[in-house]
Design a protein that fits this description.
- 2 copies of one chain form a homodimer.
- Chain A has helices at about 20-30, 40-50, 65-90, 130-140, 165-175, 205-215, 225-235; strands spanning about 5-10, 35-40, 60, 60-65, 95-100, 110, 125, 145, 150, 160, 180-185, 205, 240-245, 255.
- By secondary structure, chain A is an alpha/beta fold.
- Chain A has a single domain, classed as 3-Layer(aba) Sandwich (Carbamate kinase), CATH 3.40.1160.10.
- The radius of gyration of chain A is 17 Å and the shape is globular.
- The termini of chain A are close together.
- The interface of A and B includes residues 71 and 88 of A.
Chain lengths: ~260, ~260
């Protein structure tokens, strides 16, 4: 039987809330088995952009990354957020290592085509190219990888990358060796039929149900790529995907995507 | 016989000069044996501080690091400079990994006493506490560690640390297992008797000669901690320390500190 490994994705703005961060990391540390953390950072990047007088350009909810913005997001994601999380994990005795996709060539990516929209220095990783052997070497040494959402093109350019996609890619690449569980943490309890009512939580969801919720407009915006990544992860070998609030990772209460194989 | 390992320290401003960076990294890649790179970044941090409207406070050539400055230097050193260098190394087929002292608890440090001068979030590493076994595990896997000058106190705080001291500490910690050579690259050919005359290069220097050059005022300012770190490194097991221009690392032409054991 394969050993368990959890890949947990959180937003980066948690770094701005020391108590929430410490409480989440303490839960994260208690998760059974090997683990990997992936963090975003968009909110803090936009805040820092304002401070530096840089304009934030978004198209369809995604950041346009020109060279100045690439510098900014690399500083915020790979620098401040990543190292602050690792320092907070070290404090509680969790031996973490902060990584981006360029380190040890862990996540090579391809710069996105400028057609139909030129997103600039933005890349998409290919899960089959991930350096899974080095990642499992770290895991076997009891070291917890903490990823920011920066990758590279192999030709000297760093690339801004969607953190949900990093989490999907890493989970998929590790699912060959491990029984992999992917947790997408966000600010709600999971997928809600009514955004204002936590009781309307959708406990399980098939891909067909997801499609009809999309058509009803209940699944919209940033939730769409999260769910697309989730079903792709399941199709490619990830055992279980749960979308939930960061405070619930130990109970696992949230939206469990079916197709997920629940092994007890 | 021990295997060779080189620890090379460069300034961080080289990242602002793509051609000089590429040429240096291509030389670095050709250095025989295992290697580790350590980079600074003070010039770029001061530039970024101006852009963000932060005041740079220096006392005796050292930066006072309040919490906003700590955030800034972590962004610049661990984020932009570190990942840019790693991306440039990956481009030329050198499998590098970007690290700070907090990652895998590689370089624990102690926050400097606020007496007589309160430098803020500034730390000094203890070479005996460095995680040398993980570093040599990386080296044996053919992975090249690239260090920025950020460490941590083990209690959740990142610490700004002198990059020369990081290089000294890492070289010293690795000298038990490897025949370690420490290269301090800077903007001159080495120690010069006359700063305006490259022909006045001091080819070798004992600790006594160093003391008298200090008294003559020929060795001054930033060169003093560099030389103090160098002689400390030699006393603690580093085989060879050379102070030289970054363009000369393959020839090794510069100031060789004696006490250095030259093994051919």
């Amino acid at each position: 039987m394969k050993e368990k490994l959890s890949v947990v994705k959180i937003g980066g703005n948690i770094v701005d809330h020391p108590e929430a961060l410490q409480s989440f990391l303490s839960d994260f540390k208690q998760l059974e088995g090997r683990k990997v953390l992936v963090h975003g950072g968009g909110v803090m990047a936009s805040k820092m952009a304002r401070q530096m007088g840089l304009e934030t350009k978004m198209v369809q909810g995604r950041r346009i990354t020109d060279s100045e913005t690439l510098k900014l997001v690399t500083m915020v994601y790979a620098g401040w957020i990543n190292k602050s999380i690792v320092a907070a994990l070290q404090k509680i005795g969790c031996n973490a290592i902060g990584l981006s996709g360029v380190d040890a060539n862990l996540i090579p990516a391809v710069r996105r085509s400028p057609e139909p929209i030129d997103y600039g220095f933005v890349g998409d990783p290919d899960p089959t190219q991930i350096n899974a052997s080095f990642l499992s070497q770290l895991a076997e040494s009891g070291i917890v990888p903490v990823f920011c959402a920066i990758t590279h093109d192999g030709n000297g350019s760093l690339l801004n990358t969607n953190a949900d996609t990093i989490a999907y890619s890493v989970a998929t690449a590790l699912s060959e060796k491990y029984e992999t569980i992917l947790y997408y943490c966000f600010e709600k309890e999971g997928v809600l039929r009514d955004l204002n009512d936590p009781q309307s939580l959708v406990l399980t969801m098939t891909q067909e149900e997801c499609e009809s919720l999309k058509q009803e407009g209940i699944v919209a915006d940033g939730m769409i790529p999260k769910l697309d990544n989730s079903f792709r992860a399941i199709a490619q070998g990830v055992s279980k995907v749960i979308i939930l609030h960061a405070t619930n990772i130990l109970t696992g209460r949230g939206t469990l995507l079916s197709g997920s194989v629940v092994k007890e």
